[in-house]
Design brief:
The chain is mainly α. The chain has 17 helices and three strands. It is 76% helix and 6% strand.
């Protein structure tokens, strides 16, 4: 969203200046005209670095969306009209979310369906969120769909919290190691180097490597930073290409413990979303297409797109999933086959999602148990290398006397 400064006149001819947020200049002018004003000028606001920092701080998070959905579902279930519920939520939400809710309210009051109003904010509401809202409107069960959507978002946030919690400890240790290593490179190693030079000491290989790294950090820090920036930029560019994204996503799945956990988390969200869509009246084919666009991993996304193509050709859903055994576990196609036979696809997908969630919980516990010794081993190797590189030349010097 962009910000625009405008000048307008009201019905009495009084000049009014203000600010509006919209996707483009045309939409901004339309929002101003809806207030009964005649637009005289509209210019995009030039934002300062401080404004950008404030925007990052005020960014809409998944927690904000989950909270909004839960409150909205509660109000609609209680019988409040949608416009009244949105009006209340607008006053309660933080600035960034409040502006989104305000625009949704304006669109709904203008006669647009709620799902279409949500669709105008793709960075906030996913395609699956919009599709579920639309199905609830068509089927006249918007209140039930919103409740289930809120439950689903809260489950996702709870599970992501568990995974993040398991990764906090190793992240702190690794950051601490990097900080200590930089302090050693900048302050300690140069002094030891001058000491070794005075005595013309013969330096072992570990010490030469350490001194070389220290020189690279101190003497060539602009080049080092430039190489790091270029490497990071190159990685991002490569990741944006279809081949690069596929390669990186494939490598992520091959990382011990973490890769399998990531796959389980994606499958949990995938099956839960599909279950929610089927239960809300979205066709399985449409659900597969929407889910394929939402999944962050290209390997699973491409497999889902192929599954959708196979289903569109008339093949059973279970058979289409079974054609990708390297991506989808056998239990998924097996359970979907049961759902097709019994006509209880929603219930079956929900059960499979629960199975994946339980397995993911177990992998999170396994990751938590495995991380501590692995981090300690890495920390021990790092400290051992530093000790050998620093102490060995000193030991060689003392042995000469």
């Amino acid at each position: 969203m962009k910000r625009y400064n405008y000048k307008a006149k009201d019905k009495d001819g009084k000049l009014i200046k203000g600010e509006v947020e919209a996707a483009n200049e045309y939409t901004a002018a339309r929002l101003v005209r809806k207030q009964g004003l005649v637009v005289l000028s509209m210019k995009q606001k030039i934002e300062s670095p401080f404004t950008i920092l404030e925007k990052l701080k005020d960014k809409i998070t998944q927690d904000d969306i989950a909270t909004f959905t839960r409150q909205f579902a509660t109000m609609v279930n209680a019988g409040l009209p949608i416009t009244e519920a949105l009006l209340i939520l607008r006053s309660q939400a933080k600035d960034s979310m409040g502006r989104v809710v305000s625009q949704i309210l304006a669109d709904v009051e203008g006669g647009e369906p709620l799902s279409k109003a949500f669709a105008k904010h793709p960075k906030v509401f996913t395609p699956s969120y919009v599709a579920l809202t639309k199905s609830g409107e068509i089927g006249g069960v918007l209140d039930n769909v919103l409740v289930r959507l809120a439950d689903d978002l809260e489950k996702q946030q709870e599970f992501k919290g568990k995974v993040k919690g398991a990764l906090i400890y190793p992240a702190i240790i690794i950051v601490g190691m990097v900080i200590v290593a930089f302090i050693m490179m900048i302050f300690v190693i140069p002094r030891l180097t001058s000491l070794y030079d005075e005595f013309n000491a013969e330096l072992p290989l570990p010490t030469k490597i350490l001194i070389g790294m220290s020189d690279a950090v101190i003497r060539f820090w602009p080049i080092t930073i430039l190489l790091l920036v270029l490497g990071f930029y190159g990685f991002r560019v490569y990741k944006k290409t279809p081949a690069g994204r596929r390669k990186i996503d494939s490598l992520m799945f091959k990382i011990p413990i973490i890769g399998e956990l990531q796959k389980q988390v994606i499958l949990t969200d995938l099956t839960r979303t599909l279950s929610l869509m089927v239960g809300a009246g979205v066709s399985i084919l449409e659900g597969l297409g929407i889910t394929a666009g939402v999944v962050v991993n290209s390997i699973i996304s491409d497999a889902l797109k192929d599954v959708a193509i196979q289903v569109e050709k008339g093949l059973p859903v279970s058979f289409a999933f079974a054609k990708h055994p390297e991506t989808f576990p056998f239990i998924l196609s097996q359970m979907i086959a049961v759902g097709e036979e019994t006509g209880k696809m929603e219930e079956v997908l929900s059960k499979v999602s629960h199975v994946f969630e339980v397995e993911s919980d177990q992998k999170v516990k396994g990751l938590t148990a495995a991380i501590e010794p692995v981090v300690m081993i890495i920390l021990g190797l790092g400290v051992g290398f530093l000790v050998i590189a620093i102490i060995l030349p000193i030991y060689n010097l003392t042995s000469q006397f």
